[in-house]
Design goal:
374 residues; mainly alpha; 2 strands; 84% helix
Length: 374
């Protein structure tokens, strides 16, 4: 058993601990902290179950399954927060997920991978396609906010109508990107697919148990694991969101910083570890695919789904974001596109991405102070 799996197995103990913390009234900070830790291994189990089911269902259906459930943990947390009326936290978590994947995950991957290998390569054509898609996502997030700030007396109904219409367009674009990568231009992604297969083969050779599971997955077992993990994530998300406001207040954190920095790390930790691990094995194609693919899924699928869900539930969810969040997303997309456009990476480029993430994190942390001083 790998160290990573051992850690995730050990963290499962926080599921009963978090429930006990809530039931016995240990306080909001204890509930928030234990629930956050409990979500980490559950997210990993959801990801593993999705991958195993994809093996049985075939490449096309499996790819669609991975594309749909790739950010299921974040979506569940966001839905619970949306239902609780924490719209600002939901919006912050969306922008934070994009920023975290592009700067933190890619930065760590390029930095640690670059320490082992002088220069690493990935598909530049795919990087350019992803860059164009991310530019569209930034435009889609920017226009509703710009309309709100340039128009006097705009009604909520108008903003909601625009947001829903844009959300439908984004979901359509996301479906077309899946068609592009899984049907019409699969040859562009062959290198990434080959690396995935090589990674699985390596795991199979080093661990006989994994070999058995990977080559003969039990469909119903993994469907059951996925369902149980999903239910537990929903329960832990309820505990996390319920304690969020009071806990962050006691810790001296704002809703903006919590949403942009903390929640994305909690929901994406397992995926982050995977991206960094494969980068350290000189599989940068796969690492970039995980990081950028997750950002695209957030921007083109998760955010639109939340907008439409909020509209159906009567919750005030739209695409009118905090302008400071949009600036941060635009900065993240700009520097990531600039660094990844040549299809090569090194440790210095990883450092630049990490530095950008730290600077943005500090800005979000001190944002209320800056705002109050103006």
């Amino acid at each position: 058993m790998s160290i990573r799996n051992s850690i995730f197995y050990g963290l499962l103990v926080f599921i009963p601990i978090s429930i006990a913390a809530y039931g016995l009234g240990w306080g909001s900070v204890a509930v928030f902290g234990t629930a956050a830790i409990a979500i980490l291994p559950l997210a990993a189990w959801m990801g593993t179950a999705t991958e195993e089911i994809a093996v049985v269902s075939g490449s096309t259906l499996g790819g669609l399954l991975n594309a749909t459930f790739g950010n299921a943990t974040e979506l569940i947390i966001a839905l619970v927060a949306l239902n609780a009326g924490l719209t600002d936290v939901v919006k912050a978590s969306l922008t934070g997920s994009i920023i975290g994947n592009l700067l933190l995950v890619m930065g760590l991957s390029m930095f640690l991978g670059g320490l082992r290998y002088k220069e690493q390569e990935f598909q530049p054509v795919v990087a350019r396609v992803n860059a164009s898609s991310m530019n569209l996502a930034v435009i889609a997030m920017l226009l509703p906010t710009a309309m709100n700030y340039t128009s006097e007396g705009i009604s909520y109904a108008a903003m909601q109508g625009l947001s829903v219409a844009v959300a439908i367009v984004l979901i359509g674009v996301y479906a077309l990107t899946l068609l592009f990568s899984m049907r019409t231009h699969t040859y562009l992604y062959d290198a990434g697919t080959a690396e995935v297969e090589a990674e699985l083969q390596e795991l199979a050779e080093t661990n006989p148990l994994d070999h058995t599971i990977r080559h003969q997955p039990n469909l119903w077992l993994w469907v059951g694991v996925l369902l149980v993990a999903t239910v537990l994530v929903a329960i832990e998300s309820e505990l996390l969101v319920g304690a969020l406001e009071e806990a962050t207040s006691q810790l001296g954190l704002t809703a903006l910083f919590t949403g942009v920095i903390l929640l994305p790390v909690i929901g994406n930790a397992a995926e982050h570890v995977t991206a960094v691990t494969v980068a350290m094995k000189n599989k940068m194609d796969l690492s970039v695919s995980v990081a950028v693919g997750s950002s695209l899924q957030i921007a083109l699928f998760v955010a639109p789904v939340l907008v439409i869900t909020g509209w159906l539930l009567g919750k005030p969810m739209d695409l009118d974001f905090n302008p400071f969040e949009l600036v941060a997303v635009a900065v993240a997309v700009l520097i990531t596109n600039s660094i990844s456009s040549d299809g090569r990476s090194n440790w210095l480029e990883g450092t630049l991405l990490l530095a950008a993430y730290v600077i943005l994190g500090l800005a979000f942390y001190f944002h209320p102070v800056i705002e109050g001083a103006v």
